[in-house]
Design brief:
By secondary structure, the chain is mainly β. The chain is built from 1 helix and 12 strands, in the order αββββββββββββ. It has one helix spanning 5-10, and strands at residues 14-15, 21-25, 52-62, 67-77, 85-97, 107-110, 115-121, 136-137, 140-145, 153-159, 178-184, 187-191. The termini are close together.
Length: 198
């Protein structure tokens, strides 16, 4: 029996008598920034008052079982000041899809926890000449946070308060409060039976 590239990528597969398979799959990390631009309250500057950033990520099976999407929600609220606030989402991001056209297997269920949540209070942006260790941008620290309820997410990289306006007016993440990356752990899924895989 010829092993397909997709089967090799999935690793060892448990097969029941009914043809249903359970396996661990690897999700793609999100590396495209997610930048909120809404500004329903306050101005666009957190001015050293946080913000408190909240991230939620929920996985869902889509495209008839051929794909898994992460739906990302992000908000940032000033702690004091004039109550500046921004939010975006849920933003759907494709994090897995079946890639072998000659052999089709559909995901029937995600057996691992499907959601992750984190909340983090940003430190203040730092002006010219400020000594700060670690990655930064426009005086703001790029921080990598492990979710309090990790689920499928390993960690999230965020930019909070900076040395100027923080809530963006466009999709350019540079110098603006945003999610910069989300890293995922492997998840356990159940595949339905397939007549096309040999």
């Amino acid at each position: 029996m010829r092993a397909t590239l997709a089967a090799l990528a999935l690793g060892a597969v448990a097969l029941s008598a009914s043809g249903v398979q359970a396996d661990m799959i690897t999700l793609r990390d999100i590396t495209t920034p997610i930048v909120p631009t809404s500004n329903p309250t306050g101005d666009r500057d957190f001015d050293g008052n946080g913000p408190r950033m909240t991230v939620g990520v929920e996985l869902s099976i889509e495209r008839g079982g051929r794909a898994i999407f992460a739906h990302v929600s992000f908000s940032a609220r000033e702690l004091g000041g004039d109550g500046s606030f921004t939010q975006v989402g849920p933003v759907p991001v494709l994090v897995w899809r079946w890639e072998d056209d000659s052999c089709l297997r559909l995901v029937e269920a995600i057996n691992s926890q499907t959601f992750s949540v984190l909340s983090h209070d940003s430190g203040p942006g730092c002006g010219f000449g400020c000594a700060r260790i670690g990655a930064q941008e426009d005086g703001g620290a790029l921080v990598t946070i492990v979710p309090q309820d990790p689920g499928p997410v390993v960690d999230v990289t965020l930019l909070g308060d900076t040395n100027g306006d923080d809530i963006s007016t466009d999709d350019n993440a540079h110098g603006d409060t945003s999610i910069r990356a989300i890293r995922f752990r492997q998840i356990d899924v159940t595949f339905g039976p397939s007549l096309t895989c040999g």
